[in-house]
């Protein structure tokens, strides 16, 4: 018996040497189950689970400061955008950080670790549910979207080692509950609304249907062709939406007969994206984005990023597309995206991870524009809501959010999503504009609105453009569409043409737009009527100056161009 006890003691001692001591753990993220999801049972312990860890950047605050410096008119660094290697020096995690987190994973039997992201900021691995639960003090379960198609395996809380906190931004996917992507044009009839005066004239026919000619007349956009081949315009494509070259040819023949009908776009495939070209593959969303980019930004090279369904980022390719762009030696100077999510589907850490990518793009000289959404103050949902629902990425302070107007004279479109972020605080470039709106409308003292929105959050949209009854060609037929999906490519085209003039004059493109836009409020047609109802309220109302329906207003091309040239000088 003594011999057996001694042997057992030796075994226990050897085991203690082989197994690493468990590190002190701290809760990193936790949340309650969102109302639009329900539990769907516990997965088998040996179910495979692929996870990624976002590592903290070498100098995130330094990158933020540089992005602001190169984007703020009057700063000595204005327009001096970063190369990929310069951005990487700020955004990449130090090698010691990668080694520290990898060593912890190796200690716990996790091998085959991979790195991803434009700056190597993610490390990924595949393990089992049981190992992940033990590794992160988590409780991964299956969840299903109530009344929807989304099925997820998530945990409501997870922990990380206390000594690795400074190295880890987040673990993904864990506490996020991101639903199927939202976006696409609106086909239903629009409500009639009152009208307000504007500065430029447009044909009366633009009240019933909007064409490129209407848009160019309204905003003073010239038909003069762009000249700089380096000045590219990017269009994001998701959800099996594909633009058709035949539809674009017909669109140009009908609505821009002064341009060559052979003008087309190039395609970059991401995540096994495709480019099918038959009438049955026509996507109205993709056709809107491409036709109103090619049709307004005359002769600006257009690139369509076709994002497939094989998404390593786990969020429908939203991060993959920006990572691919960030890694390009010469990315497009401006990117428009007409898809979005509700902000509350993202945890603060995940939203910040996305937003930092857009910050890096701005530092590199890329303008990132997003449609604000078509649900008024109710986000992407048509259901009743007790609190206003902001949309994301529109609420990221490093993107330019585009709302919608309709009719001639223009008024705020009732569907134009706008409001205030619950995750991001008010950026400095918005301080005056947002304070003025709250003062004018007295919303902070209105009992109806009490507690429904954050009075200190980042406001959106930033700008607006036509988004009602636009004519496009889809599958060979001319149809009418509407939504902020129309507005974003229109405003993006304005920026692309201004960039062309800047580059032709030997200057840098605008890059991150918002400090420049808010510094020049007089370069917009101010929209003072219209509202965006939702959540059993009238929503917000348009007003003099910035408002959360139409932002600063719609673009006055000549005034914005003059301001851009002056800032560059």
UniProtKB/TrEMBL annotation:
Q: Which UniProt keywords apply?
A: Calcium, Hydrolase, Metal-binding, Protease, Serine protease, Signal, Zymogen
* Compartment list: Secreted, Extracellular space
Q: Which GO terms describe its molecular function?
A: metal ion binding; serine-type endopeptidase activity; tripeptidyl-peptidase activity
Entry annotated with the keyword Calcium: yes
Biological process, per Gene Ontology: proteolysis
> Which residues does Ca(2+) bind?
526-527, 545, 547
| UniProt keyword Ligase, yes or no | no
Concerning InterPro entries, the annotation shows: Peptidase_S8/S53_dom, Peptidase_S8/S53_dom_sf, S53_propep, Sedolisin_dom, Tripeptidyl-peptidase_I
Write down the required cofactor(s): Ca(2+)
Q: Which reaction does it catalyse?
A: Release of an N-terminal tripeptide from a polypeptide
> Which Pfam families has this protein been placed in?
Peptidase_S8, Pro-kuma_activ
Active site, renumbered: 285, 289, 485
In this chain the Peptidase S53 domain maps to 209-567
**The protein's enzyme class:** hydrolase
Mind telling me which PROSITE patterns this protein's record contains?
A: SEDOLISIN (PS51695)
Q: Which SUPFAM superfamilies match?
A: Protease propeptides/inhibitors, Subtilisin-like
How many and how are cofactors bound here?
Binds 1 Ca(2+) ion per subunit.
- The record's EC number reads 3.4.14.10
Stated name of the protein: tripeptidyl-peptidase II
Organism, by scientific name, is Gymnopus androsaceus JB14
């Amino acid at each position: 018996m003594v011999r057996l006890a001694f042997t057992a003691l030796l075994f226990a001692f050897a085991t203690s040497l082989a197994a690493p001591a468990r590190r002190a753990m701290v809760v990193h993220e936790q949340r309650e189950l969102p109302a639009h999801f329900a539990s769907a049972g516990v997965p088998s312990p040996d179910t495979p689970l692929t996870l990624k860890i976002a590592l903290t950047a070498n100098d995130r605050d330094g990158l933020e400061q540089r992005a602001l410096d190169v984007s703020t008119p009057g700063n000595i660094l204005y327009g001096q955008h970063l190369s990929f290697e310069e951005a990487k020096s700020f955004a990449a995690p130090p090698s010691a950080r990668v080694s520290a987190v990898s060593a912890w994973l190796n200690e716990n039997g996790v091998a085959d670790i991979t790195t991803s992201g434009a700056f190597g900021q993610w490390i990924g691995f595949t393990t089992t549910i049981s190992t992940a639960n033990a590794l992160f003090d988590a409780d991964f379960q299956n969840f299903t979207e109530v009344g929807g198609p989304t099925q997820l395996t998530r945990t409501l809380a997870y922990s990380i080692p206390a000594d690795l906190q400074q190295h880890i931004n987040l673990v993904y996917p864990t506490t996020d509950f991101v639903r199927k992507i939202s976006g696409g044009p609106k086909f239903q009839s629009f409500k009639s609304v009152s009208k307000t005066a504007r500065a430029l004239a447009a044909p009366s026919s633009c009240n019933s249907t909007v064409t490129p000619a209407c848009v160019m007349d309204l905003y003073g956009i010239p038909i003069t062709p762009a000249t700089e081949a380096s000045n590219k315009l990017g269009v994001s494509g998701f959800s099996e939406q594909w633009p058709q070259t035949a539809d674009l040819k017909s669109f140009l023949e009908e609505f821009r007969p002064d341009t060559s009908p052979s003008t087309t776009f190039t395609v970059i495939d991401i995540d096994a994206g495709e480019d099918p070209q038959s009438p049955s593959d026509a996507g109205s969303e993709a056709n809107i984005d491409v036709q109103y980019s090619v049709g307004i930004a005359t002769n600006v090279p257009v690139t369509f990023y076709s994002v497939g369904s094989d998404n390593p980022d786990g969020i429908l390719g939203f991060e993959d597309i920006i990572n691919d762009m960030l890694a390009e030696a010469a990315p497009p100077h401006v990117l428009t995206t007409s898809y979005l999510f509700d902000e509350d589907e993202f945890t603060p850490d995940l939203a910040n991870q996305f937003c930092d990518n857009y910050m890096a793009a701005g530092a590199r000289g890329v303008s990132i524009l997003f449609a604000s959404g078509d649900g008024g103050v109710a986000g992407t949902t048509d259901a009743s809501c007790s609190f206003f629902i902001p949309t994301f990425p529109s609420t990221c302070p490093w993107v330019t959010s585009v709302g919608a107007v309709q009719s001639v004279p223009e008024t705020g479109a009732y569907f134009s999503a706008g409001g205030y972020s619950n995750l991001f605080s008010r950026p400095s470039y918005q301080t005056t504009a947002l304070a003025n709106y709250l003062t004018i409308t007295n919303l902070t003292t209105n009992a109806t609105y009490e507690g429904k929105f954050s009075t200190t959050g980042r406001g959106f949209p930033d700008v607006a453009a036509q988004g009602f009854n636009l004519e496009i060609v889809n599958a060979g037929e001319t149809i009418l569409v509407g939504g902020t999906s129309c507005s974003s490519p229109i405003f993006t085209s304005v920026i692309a043409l201004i960039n062309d003039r800047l580059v032709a004059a030997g200057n840098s493109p605008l890059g991150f737009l918002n400090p420049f836009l808010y510094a020049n409020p007089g370069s917009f047609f101010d929209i003072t009527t219209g509202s965006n109802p939702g959540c059993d309220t009238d929503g917000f109302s348009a007003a003099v100056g910035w408002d959360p329906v139409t932002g600063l207003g719609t673009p006055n091309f000549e005034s914005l161009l003059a301001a851009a040239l002056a800032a560059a000088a």
